[in-house]
């Protein structure tokens, strides 16, 4: 795991990184300053901030749902899921839509 951390640290500082073996591609995002990666094979879309419909009685981590080309997407509030405080400015918020077991979720 240390090697992975070193590669991320090198990439963030603009250093050249040499890879050996198989290469995997990830979509990366930051939540509360923490870097996360999701395999590009799981990502369906990356959307600008969307109108989210609230879902009554849903757990707190479920922000609601959105419509993506006629499909309902469950929106998960990653800050709540990670027990982080709400963002001060959510104007740059993006929705990363992933497919998990043939269901769409926005992170």
Walk me through the structure:
The model has no long low-confidence stretch (mean pLDDT 85). The strands form two sheets. The protein has a five-stranded mixed β-sheet with strand order 3-6-7-5-4. The chain is globular and about 50 Å long. It is 14% helix and 39% strand. It has a single domain (2-106), classed as OB fold (Dihydrolipoamide Acetyltransferase, E2P). It has 107 residues and is mainly beta. The two termini are 24 Å apart. The chain has two helices and seven strands; from the N terminus they run αβββββαββ.
Strand content: 35-45%
Supply the number of structural domains.
1
The mean pLDDT is 85
- Rg: 16 Å
Biggest β-sheet strands, sense, barrel: 5 strands, mixed
Distance between the termini: 24 Å
Helix proportion: 10-25%
- Would you identify the CATH architecture? Beta Barrel
Helical run tally:
2
Number of strands: 7
CATH top level assignment: Mainly Beta
CATH superfamily: CheA-289, Domain 4
Offer a concise description of the structure:
The protein has 107 residues and is mainly beta.
Describe the SSE topology:
Blueprint: H1 2-12, E1 26-31, E2 34-39, E3 43-48, E4 62-68, E5 71-76, H2 78-81, E6 94-100, E7 103-106
Parallel strand pairs: 5-7
Antiparallel strand pairs: 1-2, 3-6, 4-5, 6-7
Q: Notable features of this structure?
A:
39% strand, OB fold (Dihydrolipoamide Acetyltransferase, E2P), 107 residues, mainly beta, five-stranded mixed sheet, two-stranded antiparallel sheet
């Amino acid at each position: 795991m240390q090697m992975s951390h070193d590669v991320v640290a090198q990439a963030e500082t603009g250093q050249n990184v040499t890879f050996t073996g198989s290469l995997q591609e990830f979509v990366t995002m930051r939540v509360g300053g923490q870097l996360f990666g999701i395999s590009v094979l799981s990502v369906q879309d990356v959307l600008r901030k969307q109108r989210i419909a609230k879902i009554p009685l849903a757990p707190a981590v479920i922000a609601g749902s959105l419509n993506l080309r006629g499909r309902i997407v469950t929106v998960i509030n990653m800050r709540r899921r990670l027990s982080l405080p709400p963002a001060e400015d959510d104007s740059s918020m993006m929705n990363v839509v992933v497919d998990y077991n043939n269901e769409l979720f926005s992170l």
